[in-house]
UniProtKB/TrEMBL annotation:
It holds the Pfam family LysR_substrate. The keyword Repeat does not apply. Signal peptide: none annotated. One of its GO terms (molecular function) is DNA-binding transcription factor activity. InterPro entries: HTH-type_LysR_regulators, LysR_HTH_N, LysR_subst-bd, WH-like_DNA-bd_sf, WH_DNA-bd_sf. It comes from Lentilactobacillus kisonensis DSM 19906 = JCM 15041. Belongs to the LysR transcriptional regulatory family. This is Transcriptional regulator, LysR family. GO terms for cellular component: cytosol. Residues 1-58 form the HTH lysR-type domain. Keywords: DNA-binding, Transcription, Transcription regulation. It comes from the Bacteria.
């Protein structure tokens, strides 16, 4: 499977038809059609549902489109890193949830883009599971997770600040008058969880004897979507505290869970994988900023 053909495939998807893609690629429609037919034969599948004007992806086509983008990104960044020699340039991808560490990353990004004019930085807001998947596949240079898991397969830099678990709720909710919440307080209330492997187990372990009475009704990915769900009374969100919840006249508030362990965040990267020059600059700067040695 050649990268050139994958680029052709991606262009067809983006243009929506063969003729538009052929114009963008400056090749004939017949040549482009033949290349895609050869790709389908190589994969032994059909990638497109061909209509009179537009084409649509099959399920296999959608899978390939997602993977092809990752492969092209990885190939381009690798080529750029090798060709750049001593120049600090290229793209840096950091995956993180929406917590205090985003502000720290932004400070390092500012130092990078004002010092290295050919560097581009990308902060990807995503879930913990997707952070690990991106780091594993190489589409993310680094990820930030909030967990106490050891994660021995990754190099790590631990941040000193810890996050507090609790419930995000409307400011006028019946539980808003409590300073802290106990497991009994959650009974008969609908709960929303962040879409991450260890989150539900964290909540249920804390709930103890009340774990069977905890009603989990759904999940969320990003804080924005969580806020929409909470404001519309779908449920109360099991989440980390944020400064926004303590602002005057905030429509949402945060109440911590009694006795819940506070969790550290850590920067992770894949062990045994060489960093680009730009990634190494980032790691050095954030290590200096936090006054920690990485391991």
């Amino acid at each position: 499977m050649e990268l050139r053909i994958l680029r052709y495939f991606i262009t067809i998807v983006r243009e929506g038809n063969i003729s538009g893609a052929a114009n963008v690629l400056h090749i004939s429609q017949s040549t482009l059609s033949r290349q895609i037919q050869d790709l389908e034969a190589e994969l032994d599948t059909t990638l497109f549902i061909r209509g009179s004007r537009q084409i649509k992806l099959t399920s296999d086509g959608q899978f390939l489109y997602a993977r092809a983008g990752e492969m092209i990104q990885l190939a381009d960044s690798t080529t750029h890193a090798i060709n750049a020699k001593d120049i600090i340039s290229g793209d840096l991808f950091i995956g993180a949830g929406e917590n205090f560490t985003s502000a720290l990353v932004a400070q390092i990004f500012y130092q990078i883009v004002t010092t290295y004019k050919e560097a581009r930085v990308h902060l990807v807001s995503t879930t913990g599971d997707q952070v690990r998947a991106g780091v594993d596949k190489g589409t993310l240079d680094f990820g930030i997770l909030t967990t106490e898991a050891r994660l021995p397969e990754y190099g790590q830099l631990r941040f000193s600040q810890k996050d507090s678990w609790g419930l995000v709720m409307p400011a006028n909710h019946e539980l808003s008058g409590k300073e802290v919440l106990t497991p009994a307080d959650l009974v008969n209330h609908r709960i929303l969880l962040a879409r991450q492997v260890d989150v539900e187990q964290t909540l249920l372990s804390w709930a103890g004897n009340y774990r069977d009475q905890i009603q989990v009704v759904g999940t969320y990915d990003m804080y924005y979507s969580m806020h929409v769900l909470v404001r519309n009374h779908v449920g109360l969100a099991f989440s980390f505290d944020k400064p926004d919840y303590h602002q005057t006249n905030s429509s949402l508030i945060f109440r911590p869970l009694s006795g819940m362990t506070r969790f550290s965040s850590k920067l992770i990267w894949k062990k045994g994988r060489s960093h680009s020059r730009l990634a190494q600059v980032f790691l050095t700067k954030i290590s200096d900023k936090t006054n920690h040695d990485h391991y």
